[in-house]
Structure prediction request, 173 residues.
Amino acid sequence: MDVERVQKINNLALELMKQGLVQEREEAVKQAEGILAKKDCSSLNEEVKELNLDKEEGKMEEELGKEKVREILEKNTTFIVQKMRENQKQMGEFKEEINKLRSEITVLRGSMSNLKTKQESFALKEVAKEEPQQKLEAKESKSPVEDHPRSGSYSDVDVSIEKFFYSGSKSKD
Prediction:
């Protein structure tokens, strides 16, 4: 006997004794063997029937399977083709949008360069305006200094050269 079968018989015999269906151990073992034998026969019959049904279903499934496989493949191919077309359409739209954005960028760059040149010319005009103003301010600031006698801005009329240079005799004292 198989070890598993012996364990099943013992477990079933214990259950029969616990439930009170059998009084003695030997009688419980005999009934357990009978029950398992019936189960084995019925399970074998069921397995045979299932195998026969499986064979018949297998043949039907093969016939249906081929048709289903064809249908599934057709559906898959149409779905894939549809998705690819949608993706291509989206890619085309994205390319158009990218081209639009690129053209906008070039326009903006051109306008920025125009603004930079205008800004530079405006800055040059301001610098040109500031330079005469600075010169005027410098002249105005110098005019009070010119009046000061120590500034050194003498004219010929103010002082004669003989007062600056002494051309008399040099004596050694």
